[in-house]
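Worked problem 6 (solution included).
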Amino acid sequence: MSYYPPGQGAYGYPGYPPQQQYAAGAPVGYPPAQPGYPAYPPQGGAPPPGQPGYGYPAAAPGAPPPAPYGAPAPYGAPAPYGYPAPGAPPPAPYGYPAPAAGAHPPPPQHAPTMTHAPTMAHAPTMPMGQPNYYQPAAGGPTPQQDAETIHSACKGFGTDEKRVISVVAARPPEHLAVVTSVYKQFYGRDLVEVLDKETSGHFGRALHYLILPPIVLDAELIYQACIGAGTNERCLIQTLVGRTNADMAQLKHVFQSKYHRSLEQTVKDDVSGYFEKLLVVCIQGTRDEIGHYQYNVEADTQALYKAGEGRMGTDESQFIHILTNRPDAHLRLVFKQYESRYGKKFSKVIIKEFSGWIETALVYLVEWIENPAMCIAKNMEKAMEGAGTDDASLTRLVVRNRTPAFMAQIKANYTAKYKKSLRDRIKGETSGDYRRTLLMAIGEPERG
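Solution. The predicted structure is:
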């Protein structure tokens, strides 16, 4: 559900730092390269030309320390699993030629295109947390103080749940990552295991979700959704659909490292049909996010009509291809054009043409593209409507989307649509420490 504003790095951090500049001249003691011959390779342990590498080259003086586990690679580093480096154009979509190096490919030969569509920022995915670089807010509690608070609340007979909530549900993930590290240094115990032992039920699950680094939580959610009896399809949709390419590459890396198995194969083993095809395409992480290619709004509008309402039966593959490969800004124009021309909101077209989990997934994708905050608000309401509450889904949605700026948009959209505050809705569906935790996580602590 990760869940990336343009110009910002993944998980809410600033953009990647500029690539380090290394010396390109001849090594000390050697004459300069002669005209007509290639320049000397950069120093730092690189092997002679034509030989395989010995490992990683030595860091240049003044270079930053290695990134912590799970952090995004520096700008210019190769992306995991063979994906293009950040900023490189993605592979050409089906039917389009690959772009030449340093140049944009020629547009397809059809009607003039609308290429300067207004953009909408993706909802920010929660930061993973970087203990080596995190600086707590001035005047606020330090990670050391929070570690001591949790230890004091959990030691002895019984647990002071309110003190635990005041830390775990109120701090950002990057702060909690440092708290977890400090706790282990001070007390020699894993904080996740401590909280799992001290709490249980919906409350315990909420604390478990909150204390994990968000990308690690997503990997765990997907694993649990696929392993064992049955499949949690709704969880797969909310954690896999709508992610950026860079975010998906990082998720695949963390999943492989944590569970020693491929994310794609794990999902493929548990789902089937067009639902499987949609999730596998999402997992590839190759959507043209910023418009390296030119697409024709009119052509895509007609293609979607001919794939659905304009024919007998449905061409499911055409829907999946267009909705998972085009930039969001382009697709918003397509949805608007479709409604204007054929008099039907595009999400209603999906409901008419599809059924089952592929319908649920495509509706989620369309609503995410149109308005991420409203998409999450609707899914929160679905978790609470009717007899009983889907507490696992509600907790997952709250924890994974608790970035303050994005949560403010969710609350505003929820109130606009349902004429009731999200705070009051959650308060009416939950109770006790579980309710206090969710309300604190959405920035609406329980009064009194």
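Discussion: The first helix runs from residue 143 to 154.
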